Amino acid sequence: MHYQTKFKFERLHIWQDAMELGEKITNHADSFPRKELYNLSSQICRAIDSVALNISEGSIIQSIPEFRRFLGYAVRSLAEVVTCLHKAKNRNYISTDIFDGLYLDCYKLMNMIIAFRTKL
């Protein structure tokens, strides 16, 4: 079966970047200690997944104010991810270099979402 984008959110760069960042962060969370499986690992994965989920859910709704609201949820989820990244770095689950790269990715995505939200 040939894959073609059918949903408009699949064409949004913010959704594509959120999906990519989600996979990067989930891969790192998989290496956290087993004791964090139901704590920090789960929390950061749920938060980063919420970013793309809110972008897609908001894009389906017909009203622009509703879409803006869901983009706001996506930004808040990114803030949660950043806090989890700080915790992971402080607990030595990720290196400073990995933290810096993921932190920058989160910052860029946040700015892209805010800019997109403003233009709606």
Protein architecture, described:
The chain is mostly helical. It has a single domain, classed as de novo design (two linked rop proteins), CATH 1.20.1440.60. The protein has four helices and no strands. It has helices at residues 13-29, 40-60, 64-90, 96-119. α2 (40-60) runs antiparallel to α3 (64-90). The longest helix has 27 residues, at 64-90. It is elongated and about 45 Å long.
Topology:
Blueprint: H1 13-29, H2 40-60, H3 64-90, H4 96-119
Helix pairs in contact: 1-2, 1-4, 2-3, 3-4
CATH architecture: Up-down Bundle
Distance between the termini: 34 Å
* Count of discrete domains: 1
CATH class equals Mainly Alpha
Radius of gyration: 15 Å
Query: How much of the residues is beta strand, in percent?
Result: under 5%
Give the integer mean of the pLDDT values: 95
Oligomer: single chain
| CATH topology group | de novo design (two linked rop proteins)
Question: What share of the residues lie within helices?
Answer: over 70%
Q: Sum up the overall morphology in one term.
A: elongated
Please trace the helix and strand order, writing H or E for each element.
HHHH
> CATH-wise, what's the superfamily?
23S rRNA-intervening sequence
Structure class: mainly alpha
Strand elements, count: 0
**Uncertain spans, ≥5 residues at pLDDT below 50?**
none
Number of helices: 4
Largest sheet geometry: none
Protein name: Four helix bundle protein
InterPro entries: 23S_rRNA-intervening_sequence, 23S_rRNA_IVS_sf
